[in-house]
Fold:
Amino acid sequence: MPRLSRVVAFSSAVLAMAGTAFADPPAPPAPAKPKQIVIISFDSAREISQWQRSRALAKRTGAHFTYFLSCVFLLSQQTRAEYTAPGKSAGKSNIGFAASKQEVADRLDQIGLAAAEGHDIASHGCGHFDGKDWSKADWLKEFASFGHILENAYAINGIAPEPAGWRAIAHAVVGFRAPYLSTGKGLYEALGEAGYHYDASGVSNGPVEPPTGGGLTRFSLPQIPEGPNSRPVIAMDYNLYVRHSGGFERPSQAAEFSDRTYQAFRAAFDKQYQGKRIPLVLSFHFTLMNDGAYWNALERFADETCVKANVECISFRDYVQRQRGGDRQAGWGCCAAHFVQSSKLGLRRIFGALPLKVTLIDGRQRLALQCRFEGAQAFVNRLEFNDGRPGIDQKLERSRHSPEGVGYLAERSKGYLVRDKGRGENNKGEYIICLKKGVTHDVEVDVMKI
Structure:
């Protein structure tokens, strides 16, 4: 009997251990939700007061916006002939031109300030024509007009001096939205060739994740429930204006329309914030429709949501660059390095960035640049100018809008460098550097014989 007792006791211990061994393991913690992304943009971007108002909203909420610029507003009545739309005679536009040279100068100032503050300057084309039936060649012509006018706006209008780094802003344009959201086969054949990284001309049934294919990310404006019957409407101020008042001004109902708009925006936001957190895209114009009802709704909405800890109000460019960089929380920025070369000192003058060190080692100039961007630590980029290998200018020129095509960078995900102007007889040049914020980059570029 003692022996049996020992066996029973041993068996009980084994069963107890087995019960522990085969218990269900604790469930893993649920993955943290991503931050809710809100993307706010403005089409045409004409009125100076609305540039100022939108930038003030961004500053108090920490938001970055996208401005889809119509380039005819960089031309006055005196310079309108610089633009010729596909199938039109010179100087034609569906939305007019700037009223004066001073208006152009004021708008250029606002564009420069917005770019310096981290906002996304993008393209809405030039003359606001419906390009649904345009061919690829037509769209390439329109894109070339936009690039030429934006890059040379100061010279075209006789406004001096052109600020250092202006051409970096022009060359950093990577996004497009079609006038009237009107698209066709020719547009999508041309966008990639023209160097664009994203298009924001789509419409979707509710918020959707933007797909990327062929190097182009395609965003859509969502249809969201609005009004007493929750009928869907495109999340753009003009569509709400037509819904509320048939496209006619009714200032006496501005407060009602503003509240309806805010409630629609907030309901669409709350659904995503509490659910899958798909990016919410909202769009506006600088025109104050129904006595500013929709801008009042925008400010109320942004003041409440963009300041939340788990929300980011960012630009289309920010979103695309995060996705391409594989880091949703990373940031990017561009700065310009303008230089005048000296045979002995290497670099005599430099503008748009702070020179840290210039040395000459084995016939190679090493220049350290420090570029500062809002909300990020300073980083250092070293450029090495070496005499020798021909042909690099052509590679740089072809890659001016497309970092994916730059094969001479050691780490493509870190950034890219773009050649702007040729050296000329005085060995002058300008370079635009676009790199990830807070990271040290070493880039070697062969550019000219010393």
